[in-house]
Amino acid sequence: MDDWKLPWEGGCRCGKVRLRVTKPPLLAMACHCTGCQSMSARAYSLSLAIPADGFEIVQGETMLGGLNKDMHHFCRDCMTWMFTRPLGIDWFVNLRPTMLDDHAWFAPYIETFTAEKLPWAETPARHSFEAFPDMAGYQPLVEAYAREGARPAK
Ligand SMILES: [Zn+2]
Ligand SMILES: [Zn+2]
Description:
Helix content is about 15%, strand content about 30%. The protein is of the alpha+beta class and about 150 residues long.
């Protein structure tokens, strides 16, 4: 059943920070909120929720930044916004999927905060939410993503 082709390797733009993913992702997301627009310097941010015990930094060190300074991790040198450890949640990490050496397979499964999106910003997400889904709404999404989420081709 595990057709995720794990483990995955990845790193920041300059290569000083390297990471490894050893467990299947829980959910693939695009967020259109204005905070993500500012942080990512683009129309929306991308996230791949990885179980925390399946995610490790294998080289280099990150520094904290962003608005909620305790959760957003950046490379100290190239300042790439690499991943987020949501405050008060210790069981998953939101990795920016473009950190993965092979991320051509990535596609957002849900999109959030469409109420704030740029008028032309479209994604292939199967499920759209004006803000975040409520907490009870996540479990069915995680189960559906495990069945039908986009996977690495090789
Ligand atoms: Zn770097
Ligand atoms: Zn956002």
